[in-house]
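Support request from a user on the community tier.

User writes: "When I paste my structure tokens into the form, the page sometimes reloads and wipes my input. The last time it worked, I copied everything first. Here is what I submitted, just in case something in the input itself triggers the reload:"
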């Protein structure tokens, strides 16, 4: 009776497959990023006439993010060797309209689809409440851990995040899924995350090294954005509103783009007419100069006063702008 089990274990596939279709039949670069067997892996393919296939390998279930043409993640997947996932990405390339082949991935997709309105426009409290309910219903499912990684809004809710994680069964939150989240959460809980903003030497898009120090002005803002054009546009609009209306001697803005390399970063900023510092650092928010700021997601804004004290941390451009205005009105 052991033979079927032995044969299965010997013949188990050493890879997984993601077969996809872009609903508008576009040609695009598709990339799958995931953590497996001790390191980050990136696998890419070209969608031709809207169809693509990506093969990868992970000896344990892991979280994978699917991106189209360098945009924001179009899907979060749980992948494992032996899986054959089939999916369809909508014509705007911002989400899925169909997914099959992986029960945990299906749960992730259905949660995102069913709660789209709250996830895109709801408050941190509303989003986190939905996640708490999901964790309560699925404490033994890896999809609960994956949603904590991708969707829970941690800043200001660190204790709640820690409590929810403890409710998920240990076997349902493997290192491959929790790797980045655990590190960010630990840093968020530490005093460093909310400590003084340090002086930083940054690499500017004009191929020069610039020095940023909070004490050189009454208020400053550090804005983090992904390489996705739509997200960068919203961040730039907020920075331009501030930079055009405030005296430079009292205010400074720093924009940090999470481009994969300096060449891509320079391409993204080549046509910008920015009066603020536009910076890039190797490893982005994990770089030594940025790590202690514990940026949990993008877009993200940090507003500091002249002492380097963080007055605001969060994803709201409106709140960041209001905080700068409030600081300057006190002076």
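"...and here is what came back when it finally went through:"
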């Amino acid at each position: 009776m052991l033979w079927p089990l032995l044969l299965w274990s010997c013949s188990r596939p050493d890879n997984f497959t993601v077969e996809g279709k872009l609903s508008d039949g576009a040609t695009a670069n598709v990339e799958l990023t995931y953590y497996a067997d001790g390191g980050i892996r990136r696998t890419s393919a070209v969608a031709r006439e809207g169809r693509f296939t990506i093969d990868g390998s992970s000896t344990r279930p892991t979280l994978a993010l699917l991106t189209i043409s360098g945009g924001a993640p179009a899907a979060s997947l749980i992948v494992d060797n032996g899986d054959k996932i089939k999916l369809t990405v909508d014509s705007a390339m911002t989400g899925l309209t169909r997914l099959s082949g992986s029960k945990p991935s299906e749960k992730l997709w259905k949660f995102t689809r069913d709660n789209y309105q709250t996830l895109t426009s709801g408050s941190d409290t509303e989003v986190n409440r939905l996640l708490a309910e999901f964790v309560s219903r699925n404490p033994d499912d890896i999809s609960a851990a994956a949603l904590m990684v991708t969707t829970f809004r941690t800043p200001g809710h660190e204790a709640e995040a820690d409590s929810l994680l403890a409710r998920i069964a240990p076997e349902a939150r493997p290192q491959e899924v929790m790797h980045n989240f655990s590190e960010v959460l630990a840093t968020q809980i530490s005093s460093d995350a909310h400590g003084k903003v340090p002086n930083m030497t940054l690499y500017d898009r004009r191929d020069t090294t610039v020095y940023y120090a909070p004490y050189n002005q009454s208020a400053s803002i550090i804005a983090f954005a992904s390489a996705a054009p739509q997200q960068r546009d919203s961040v730039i609009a907020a920075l331009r509103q501030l930079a055009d209306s405030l005296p430079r001697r009292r205010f400074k803005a720093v924009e940090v783009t999470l481009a994969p390399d300096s060449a891509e970063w320079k391409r993204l900023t080549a046509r910008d007419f920015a009066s603020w510092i536009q910076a890039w650092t190797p490893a982005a928010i994990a770089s030594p100069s940025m790590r202690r700021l514990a940026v949990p997601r993008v877009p993200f804004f940090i507003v500091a006063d002249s002492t380097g004290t963080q007055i605001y941390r969060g994803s709201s451009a409106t709140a960041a702008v209001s905080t700068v205005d409030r600081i300057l009105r006190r002076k």
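Agent notes: The reload is a front-end session timeout and is unrelated to the input. The CA atoms of residues 32 and 66 lie 5 Å apart. Confidence is low (pLDDT under 50) at residues 1-11. Escalated to web team.
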